[in-house]
Amino acid sequence: MESVDDLIRKIQPYFSELSVGDLMSSPVVTVREDQRINEAKELLRTRRISGLPVIDDGGRLKGIISIEDIIHALENNMLNSNVSEIMTKNVVCLTKDEKIMDAFKKFEMYGYGRFPVVDENKNVIGIVTKYDLMIALLAKLSVLYVHDARREQFVGVEIYRSIPKNVKIVREEFEFQIDYKDISMAGTGASELKKFLISKNFPPKFVKRVAIATYEAETNVVIHSNSTGRIKAYIEPEFVEVRVNDNGKGIENIDLAMKEGFSTAPDYVREYGFGAGMGLANMKRCADRMVILSSKGNGVFVEMHFWRHEDEN
Amino acid sequence: MKIEELKDLGFEMVSDGDGEIDHGYACDLLSEVMGKAKPDTVWLTVQSHINIIAVAAITGIRAIILCNDHKFDEETIQRAKKEKIALFKTALNTFEACGKIYQKGIR
Predict the structure, then answer these.
(1) Closest A-chain CA to B48
(2) Is there a contact between B54 and A272 if contact means CB atoms under 8 Å apart?
(3) Domain coverage including residue A223
(4) Which ipTM score applies to this complex?
(5) How many CA atoms lie within 13 A of B100 on its CB side?
(6) Which of A152, A179, A252, B24 has a C-alpha 20 to 30 A away from that of A97?
(7) Please, what is the Cα angle at A225 between A224 and A231, to 5 degrees?
(8) Residue B29, phi then psi, degrees to nearest 5
(9) Do A161 and A41 belong together in one domain?
(10) Closest CB from B31, B51, B60 relative to A279
């Protein structure tokens, strides 16, 4: 399983335009430098937070105090001392115009759990924690759906392990533009892909799996996106990757969309036998790994991985 | 079962196709058909529009029987010929048509 950090790093490019000002928590709970450590401790406890920026009378940042500092103070019997005596003074800050990537870099570089956000006068205007980053990413995405059905016995196979992570397969083997509004054309791209894979000597059972999943993704573009789209497939001897994306209205609630039987298809396509609410479920069943990225108004990106199973050869 | 034999059961052949039939499936929801139908299947439905050919081609369906006296669109027939998928029609409803094929041992 990938760690949250890996996942965040992978999806970073989708959010490159987000700035610190968009994702920071504000207003911030702060403590004045002349308050007692005991008061800071109570603030942390009652607000259920793990760190506090320390300010002076004018609201300017003077330091930061964390639970670790409080523990240290407890050990040394310093709870009645001023916050300024134990706070970290050289604080690494963010400004609200810094990009989300800069924030990631600082988290990585310094290993701190939180960064205060200051304006040009060093006034504290917000704070960013890893939690804030996560929430901002999820809000932006609306949802990220990841499904991975690789089987244990298959994961052990050499060919799977030899596929390097995060390395883009440069050679593009198949491309199809979905640029029609006519529902009756749905499935053309999937049919073409099926023929292409058969011509590359992939076994029929495997090809059917790929074709069904691609058909469902293609049909979704035609029925739901109200836009153009594209099917791309990359192949290796034991592996096929299919990407289907569109520029349409996106999926508002992917969890709901994943439910079998749930459909937002209009009546006229239902009369044609579409809109059974089985599309995403079929894709999930066919693909060994599926990632859907979508948010309202930003289209849908579907990536599906198919590995040849032993019983398909 | 040979595709030809469907004629002997009283189904009217609209367009000929390739292959043999080992299984049967009846449903009008395309995703269900794609998810559940086996290869080398005869598919009974009341859907007649061109998209059923894409579904059949992808699923490996060899023949489609259109029930309840529905008519195929002309472009559906043209596409079926191209993909070599046999088309039949019948006045029987889906249940009755299934029964006939079931009796021949198709499952």
Answers:
(1) A272
(2) no
(3) 142-312
(4) 0.75
(5) 18
(6) A252
(7) 110
(8) -95, 120
(9) no
(10) B31
